[in-house]
User: Which sequence fits this backbone?
């Protein structure tokens, strides 16, 4: 799960697997019935692995896998760790609002500057928007750091299913 960029809030990975995608998808579907530690949901070639509701907190991660067929004997697995999509959408909405307010107050400050009127309030609010943006970023980083153990559990579960399913599966691959 190494990432090349520490700024990544939702780590992604990609892995080529020497097995047909339907075999892998069926293995994840079968794992639903064989264990109760995770909730596994399949939709077409997408698999979602989540913690049960009783174990979820605000920033609890989930793992979204997309398993695409390359040919009869190979598949490409794309993985994405992230919070619940509702939480992520709200988080991005806050970023969008802060950016829009920054731009609006920047335009207002520029207009006041050109009109040679007072623009200190607008500059102050722009600085506040930058502080809020950094706060949102650090909140996301703290959420990601606090859920690192859960991400490892999801990753280990995925590797366990793949190890059972795929012949000659190399855990260091990817």
Assistant:
């Amino acid at each position: 799960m190494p990432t090349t960029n520490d700024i990544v809030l939702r780590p992604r990975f990609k892995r080529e697997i020497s097995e047909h995608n339907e075999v892998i998808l069926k293995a994840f579907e079968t794992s639903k019935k064989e264990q109760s530690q995770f909730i596994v949901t399949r939709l077409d070639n997408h698999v979602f692995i989540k913690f049960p509701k009783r174990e979820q907190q605000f920033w609890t991660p989930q793992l979204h896998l997309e398993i695409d067929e390359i040919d009869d004997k190979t598949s490409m697995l794309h993985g994405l760790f992230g919070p619940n999509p509702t939480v992520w959408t709200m988080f991005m909405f806050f970023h969008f609002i802060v950016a829009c307010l920054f731009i609006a107050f920047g335009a207002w400050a520029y207009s006041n500057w050109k009109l040679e009127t007072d623009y200190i309030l607008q500059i102050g609010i722009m600085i506040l928007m930058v502080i809020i943006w950094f706060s949102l970023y650090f909140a996301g980083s703290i959420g990601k750091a606090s859920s690192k153990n859960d991400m490892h559990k999801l990753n280990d579960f995925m590797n366990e299913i793949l190890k059972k399913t795929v012949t000659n599966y190399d855990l260091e691959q990817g």
The helical segments are 21-34, 85-114, 120-146, 148-165.
